[in-house]
Description:
MFS_Transporters; cell membrane; MFS_dom; membrane; transport
Amino acid sequence: VAVAVQITGASFLWPLNSLIIHQELGKSLTVAGLILFIHSGAGVLGNMTGGKLFDKIGAYKTILLGLSIAVLATFALVFAHATVLGYTLCLIGIGYGAGATFPAMYALAGSIWPDGGRKPFNAMYVAQNLGIAVGTACIGLIASVELTTVFYANAVVYVFVLLFVAVTFRKIETKQETGATVSLKAATVKKLSKQVYYSLGLVLVSFFICWVAYTQWQANVSVHSQDLGLTLQQYSMFWTVNGLMIVLAQPILSIFIKKWVTTLRRQMVVGIFLFFVSYVVLSQVDFFAGFMVAMIILTVGEMFFWPVVPTIAHKLAPKGKEGAFQGIVNSVSTSGKMVGPLFGGLLVDLYSFQIMIYVLLGFILVAIFTASIYERPLQTKNKQKFEQNEENSVYDA
């Protein structure tokens, strides 16, 4: 609930950032891109900080701290949005504060969910996309009053999330500390082997590459589709279908996972392969239906792949390092979102949209390879134990 509402509030603002900086503040799209790059960088720092704080002070205090920073920044934005400096500083605060909350929420979900496996992370993934769908659907209504109304709406939603967490998460934290499991704060942190780092690193290489590819739909595909004559309404329909599929197609996905794609490694490889197929289709189409087919394939791929990465990080993390590992995962995804538009834009400007797609296809093949071998660095004993845990915690919708 907290994740869905927080993402709803954030979705009031992020689709309009470039528009506000360009039209309201009178700055170029290059300046807008630089400001958003800085905003994402603050999110990376927040991810790392939040993960480490989770391991030291627990989820409740970490999430409250991150949300408090975000609330202050969102209210400051209401009054400071008229200048580039004020807008930038507020976005830095929002990025850092919000970024600190997500690793703690992911780590908390993984530690308190009784059955383990990918269930908690799949639930977080669905909640995030539900928030995006609701938030982006409300933008038109809110901005129709006045464009800057989104600042007030964003601030109000963050205050609600802060109060909700303050009231409800304390019970979750208390239950966790007084239950049969050992408190994270009292846990003895095992010395991490190099094999664990290598395995996680291989997964994160795939994760980063796929986020770089995925963000092209939010950046360069939107421009390319309009160059081909598609309307903004048609482009927005791609994301409507994306959100509906993620929320409504979970029962169908669970059948495939339970019967055929039973291990985390297979789920990753299948998901990334569907990314590859999606971009092959994208490279060949110039009409609405073709773009929609590419988006549907991409959506199925992300449904397989995105929840697996935090699941693997949680399984690899020793007691007391869950937060740090989730912080690394979230920072890698944020880095991919930060680098993707810039990387793709350079390829399109220097060469062409087709060349960008072909380069991405090459990188996606690398991602398939690194995902397929991520278990190899694990020591034989640990690998057997890890695989057994995988089979015992197959995702059940």
